[in-house]
Structure formats: C-alpha cells, structure tokens
Automatic annotation (TrEMBL):
Gene3D superfamilies: Amidase signature (AS) domain (3.90.1300.10). This is Glutamyl-tRNA(Gln) amidotransferase subunit A. It comes from the Bacteria. It comes from Sphingomonas spermidinifaciens. One of its GO terms (molecular function) is ATP binding. Belongs to the amidase family. GatA subfamily. Allows the formation of correctly charged Gln-tRNA(Gln) through the transamidation of misacylated Glu-tRNA(Gln) in organisms which lack glutaminyl-tRNA synthetase. The reaction takes place in the presence of glutamine and ATP through an activated gamma-phospho-Glu-tRNA(Gln). Its EC number is 6.3.5.7. Residues 8-447 form the Amidase domain. PANTHER family: GLUTAMYL-TRNA(GLN) AMIDOTRANSFERASE SUBUNIT A, TRANSAMIDASE. One of its GO terms (biological process) is translation. The gene is gatA. It holds the Pfam family Amidase. Keywords: ATP-binding, Ligase, Nucleotide-binding, Protein biosynthesis, Transferase.
Length: 454
C-alpha cells in the first residue's frame, strides 16, 4: 500500500512522459553480471537515470513534449544517451520538458505541466513550477525518483530548474557534449549537461556525457578531463568576479542576500573577491530572444508531416494545406510564437534591424566576458531573479516569463560553462540557486567553486 501510494504521489508530479523500467533493470542486471564475472565496474554501472525527452532514444518514443512528434520512435540513439549507456547507466524513462525546450516553467509541454515536489511553508498551497525547460529532470531528481538526469540548456534550461528545486546542474562549454540525436532548438546555443543531487554526481555524469563526436560539426575535438578526480573545494588563489550589472533593478532582497552569502562562502574557501563589469549584460536577454527564435524557426521547418510523427491530412488537402494543418495542430502556442518571431527577424525587411544587431550584441557580450577574465577566474551570480513561482502565475505574460532567464542567457550566448548549485532557502522555505560561470573549457573550475558553495 505504501509503495502504491508512493507511486501515485510520484505520478502527480508528471515528471515522466514515458516510463522504461525494463531499460533500467537491464542495466542493473548487466552491472550485476559484470561484478559476478569480476570485471572492472563502469563509472555508472547500473545507475538508473532519467532522460530528458529531447534526446533521441532508439526504440523509445521521443517527443520533445510536442504533439507534432507524438508516436515518433527513433531508429537511432543520440550520442549523449549512447555514451551514458556505454558507461553502464540505465533509463527509467523519458522526462517531461517545455515543448521543444522553449520555456522556463515546463508549462508549454503538450503532456501537461510538471509539478515541483516543493511547497511554500507560508501556507500558500499553490502548486509550484519546477522551472524549465528541463522541469521533468528537476522534479524527478528533487523528489528522489532518480539520482541524476540529463538536461539541455539553450538559455538556462539546466540551471534555472536546478535552482528552483534545490539540486545542481551544469551546462558545459558549448561543444563539450555532442548535439547529434538531440532535438534541435537553437543550434548555436543548445548544449546538453547533467542534473543531479550534488556537484560530484554532476562531475561523474558530465564525464560520461562529454567527448568528441565526428557527427556534430561543432563538437570539440578535445580529451575529456577527469573532472571527478580533480574536484577540490579549495579556492585559494582564485579570483571570483562579481559582475555589478547583475544587480538588476527590482532584485528581491532575498536574492541579494543569497548572493552576499555566496560571496562570503567563496572568501571562506580562500578566494579573492573582485568586482567586475560586464557592460552589455542588459542587452543579452533581447539578443537571446532574437537569436534563439531565429534558429528555432529554421530548425523546426523540418516538422512537415512527412518525415516525423503527426500528420493532419484534411479531406482533399494538397501538400501545402497538409503542412499547414499538421503544424497548426502539432505545435503549441509558445512554439508558434517563436516561429513567428524567428521568421520575422529573419525576413528580408527586418534582418539587419534585428538579427544582425543581435549577432553584434552577442559578440559584445562574449567580449565582455573575455575582458572580465583578465581580472578574475570565475564569476559568481544568482541563477534566477526569484524562487520558483506558482504554476499559471506567468503563463499569460511571455515577457515576464522571458525575464526569468536574465542571469542565465549571457553565458549561453558566449558558450561558457556555467553551473547552478543550491545556495539555501528563501523566507517561504523555497530553494535558491547560485550560478558559477567559467572560462571556456574550465568546467573543473566551475565544479570546484560549486563544491565550495555546496
Ligand atoms: N527559458 C529559455 C527559453 O525559453 C531557455 C530555454 C532553454 O534553455 N532550453 O528559451
């Protein structure tokens, strides 16, 4: 009875779109057999993980939480998931997410929103968002349904949900994890990464997920460092930059206080604190919300009712009408909004005014970071401007939703490694996250700073 109640409770969270216990059991059996045969243990031998439903999994439905991919069963495995299976992990199921990873609350999923296992302690009992887009991953880990999961991060989708539910998550340097077999949102920004209960588990997962892949033209041809072995919370000799432009107008006092606490922890761990300036920070969000939809509008052109998933074929419809009917029925509102914005900013009349400008801003933001690295080794900021909000609270207001990404998108635009780690609880007893941003390829520095905070 207790077991059944626990299962029912877990289902309320709606974290999984598909459950695949047989996959996880097979990995556990393989781990047992290897142990019995005296073979060396694999790094993730028998570990049951969750897989964000953005990664193509051979023989298991892959939807990106969109009706347009309902019933799509890939005949191939994404590089990242294959690497995890090669490391011995097994899959408990495919995790819910914002549709095509577009969103910050998991409310754009065609399979219903995910609920956070957290509740406010002040009596307000509205269900909370686990954040997004990797909301299923966040909720499943926070509820202890799985010890770790994959996430993807285009503008904060690993870091913000990790912050909202009090777990850790790292987006590595762009190119560390192969994008092959991952449903594309904005290809120049999309990056896979792990989410887990602590920094060490993130390091173990990231090692398994990373590595050169000739099938992804932007994959980095570099060896994967031994991040777990290199973990150390000692910050002696490290200069931690505090970007003054992240002190945005209207920042809640609790977020300020969290940041201050993080600064003290860094000092205690031996770091030197320096104030830095990233002058173009306030242009990051608008630039992101031009570049990401532009790339999305191009990437999502492939969902035409011919090659994947759903097809709507009204009586007597010609090809053009079939496309239109399929896309009208298959895509959710937020996805349509992004396609419209994307095609608009790429259109002949507006390309220079929007897309070209946004690309220039992107370069300026990357240069801001390069300048900062002259005086510091890592940056410390809050992960999000608030704790988890109630489901429905921002749903009607896309701009308020986009503002949630204000601290996470700059590192995405610059392709830098960035991590969120739990920093404590706010007055309502909800988790808050601190973000560490590192130089290109310095995942080790980021993980170590995360460990110092944890
Ligand atoms: N919330 C951001 C968006 O909606 C980021 C999403 C992501 O990182 N996948 O685009």
């Amino acid at each position: 009875e207790a077991f059944n109640a626990a299962v029912a409770g877990a289902k309320v969270l709606n974290a999984f779109i598909v459950e695949t216990p047989e996959h996880a059991l097979a990995a556990a059996d393989a781990a047992d057999a290897a142990r019995a045969a005296g073979e060396a243990s694999k790094p993730l031998a028998g570990v049951p993980i969750g897989m964000k439903d953005l990664f193509a999994t051979k023989g298991v439905q892959t939807t990106a939480a969109s009706h347009i991919l309902e019933g799509f069963t890939p005949t191939y495995e994404s590089t990242v998931s294959q690497k995890l299976w090669d490391a011995g992990a097994g899959m408990l199921g495919k995790l819910n997410l914002d549709q095509f990873a577009m969103g910050s609350s998991n409310e754009t999923s065609a399979f219903g929103n995910v609920i956070s296992p957290w509740r406010r302690k002040d009596g307000a009992n509205a269900a909370l968002t686990p954040g997004g887009s990797s909301g299923g991953s966040a909720s499943a880990i926070a509820a202890r349904l799985c010890p770790a999961a994959t996430g993807t991060d285009t503008g904060g989708s690993i870091r913000q949900p990790a912050a909202f539910v009090g777990i850790s998550g790292i987006k590595p340097t762009y190119g560390r994890c192969s994008r092959w077999g991952t449903v594309a949102f904005a290809s120049s920004l999309d990056q896979a990464g792990p989410m887990a209960r602590d920094v060490r588990d993130c390091a173990i997962m990231l090692e398994a997920m990373s590595g050169f892949d000739p099938k992804d033209a932007t994959s980095l041809d570099l060896p994967v460092p031994a991040w777990e072995a290199g973990l150390s919370p000692d910050m002696k000799g490290k200069r931690i930059g505090i970007p003054k432009e992240y002190r945005v107008d209207g920042m809640p006092a609790e977020i300020e206080a969290l940041w201050q606490k993080g600064i003290e922890w860094m000092r205690d761990a031996g770091a030197e604190i320096v104030e830095v300036s990233l002058p173009h920070t306030r242009y990051a969000l608008p630039a992101y919300y031009i570049v990401a939809p532009a790339e999305a509008s191009s990437n999502l052109a492939r969902y035409d009712g011919v090659r994947f998933g759903q097809r709507e074929l009204p009586d007597g419809a010609n090809l053009q009408e079939m496309y239109a009917a399929t896309r009208a029925a298959g895509f959710g509102d937020e996805v349509k909004r992004r396609i419209l914005i994307g095609t608009y900013v790429l259109s002949a009349g507006f390309y220079d005014a929007y897309y070209t400008q946004a690309q220039k801003v992107r370069t300026l933001i990357a240069q801001d970071f390069e300048k900062a690295w002259e005086v510091c080794d890592l940056l410390l900021t809050p992960t999000a401007p608030s704790a988890a909000f109630a489901l429905g609270e921002k749903q009607a207001d896309p701009l308020a939703m986009y503002l949630n990404d204000v601290f996470t998108v700059p590192a995405s635009l610059a392709g830098l490694p960035a991590m969120s780690v739990p920093g404590g609880l706010d007055g309502a007893g909800l988790p808050l996250g601190l973000q560490v941003i590192g130089k290109p390829l310095d995942e080790q520095g980021v993980l170590n700073a995360g460990l110092a905070i944890e």
